[in-house]
Design brief:
Layout: H1 15-29, H2 53-66
């Protein structure tokens, strides 16, 4: 496999340049974005074991604080951007 030196070395240190170059390359390959109107064949199911509401809130606040937001609660976790999400709570009853 041969590696191609496409970008000057000065551009290789900044990740935003890599991101924009990749986006440009992808959109040039996808001339016109198409909306998918078909019924889904497969579903990806994420099961977050131990992710209670308080744990998710703590993760959101921590992420926001790392990003330098004032309180941290304004941050949004990646999975919260999914078009469909749900929550389930299981209670264990002992006799």
């Amino acid at each position: 496999m041969q590696l191609l030196n496409i970008f000057p070395l000065s551009m290789c240190t900044d990740r935003t340049n890599w991101y924009h170059e990749a986006q440009t390359a992808l959109w040039s390959k996808i001339k016109t974005p198409k909306r998918i109107e078909e019924k889904a064949k497969n579903v990806i199911f994420f099961l977050g074991d131990g992710m209670s509401l308080s744990t998710i809130t703590a993760a959101r606040i921590f992420k926001g604080q790392l990003e330098g937001l004032s309180f941290g609660e304004e941050a949004e976790l990646n999975f919260e951007k999914f078009p469909n999400i749900g929550i389930s709570k299981v209670y264990l009853q002992t006799n």
